[in-house]
Design a protein that fits this description.
Rossmann fold, 2 domains, 16% strand
Length: 281
């Protein structure tokens, strides 16, 4: 039976440690979240982040802006937050309304306040092995593998998905941990065969229950990044029922990678605060 990689319990542990660390500081970290429009899922995500921040002692500011805001107006909001000494971290909740260039918005955030880790400077630092603020989901995956003492060095890691949010940065982190990494995606020929070479399989393709038993080498570690709704229920990119008997360890959905993403956002905010405090003190 596969070991269940319990991201929910680990996230609680991380948050407890952060709460103690923040209580020991002489100042309070601050996170600004920009929410554009009225997307129900985005509102839920932002509410969850706001609640989690409060629990560990981070001051959160939510700027809820109209879906009709212009790109220029949004860039000005970011400029004001960049200049605000009281703000340590800035997060723009995605997706953004049509007509707004996501890359331009992300690039406008001060890299030292980019707690999502998406800014081109932070992406570049990660690619050369000099990470500053690391994207939260990949960082959470690495913490999860470490918590369960799962060997990475020398292993074959296959990442299904090439997004800037998960696929590319987790590939860089696995490389830095001395794994041999293959990046696959929806256009990869014989994808299931490529995946079957994996000692560590990261599924981040955004297709519900796409990864089935024929993708899995017996004894592989399987990390499911997906968060999909199918027949009214949450499910991942991995078909848990068929895959778990073959895996040596696997993340559940929910309570796997998701809670770790939020925990790493809080950790990044705390790190940004301490770093900025050092600079300005």
């Amino acid at each position: 039976m596969a070991i269940l990689l319990d991201g929910f319990s680990l996230a609680q542990k991380v948050r407890s440690e952060l709460k103690d660390k923040i209580a020991s500081l002489n100042s309070t970290p601050s996170l600004a979240v920009i929410l554009v429009g009225d997307d129900p899922a985005s509102q839920v995500y932002v509410g969850g982040k706001e609640k989690a921040a409060a629990e560990v002692g981070i001051n959160s500011i939510v700027k809820h802006l109209s879906k009709n805001i212009s790109e220029g107006e949004l860039l000005n909001e970011i400029k004001l937050l960049n200049e605000a000494q009281s703000v340590d971290g800035i997060l723009v909740q995605l997706p953004l309304p049509d007509g707004i260039d996501v890359h331009k918005i992300i690039s406008a955030i001060d890299p030292k306040k980019d707690v999502d880790g998406f800014h081109p400077i932070n992406a570049g630092l990660l690619s050369i092995g000099k990470p500053s603020l690391i994207p939260c989901t990949p960082k959470g995956i690495m913490r999860l593998l470490s918590e369960y003492s799962l060997e990475i060095s020398g292993k074959n890691a296959v990442v299904i998905g090439r997004s800037n949010i998960v696929g590319k940065p987790i590939s860089q982190l696995l490389l830095a941990a001395n794994a041999t990494v293959t990046v696959c995606h929806s256009k990869t020929a014989n994808l299931s065969q490529a995946a079957k070479n994996a000692d560590i399989l990261i599924a981040a393709i955004g297709r519900p229950r796409y990864v089935k038993a024929e993708f899995i080498k017996e004894g592989a570690v399987v990390v499911d990044v997906g968060m999909n709704r199918l027949e009214g229920k949450l499910c991942g990119d991995v078909d848990f029922e068929s895959v778990s008997p073959l895996a040596s360890a696997i993340t559940p959905v929910p309570k796997g990678v998701g809670p770790m993403t939020i925990a790493m956002l809080l950790e990044n905010t705390c790190e940004a605060h301490v770093s900025r405090k050092t600079i300005w003190s």
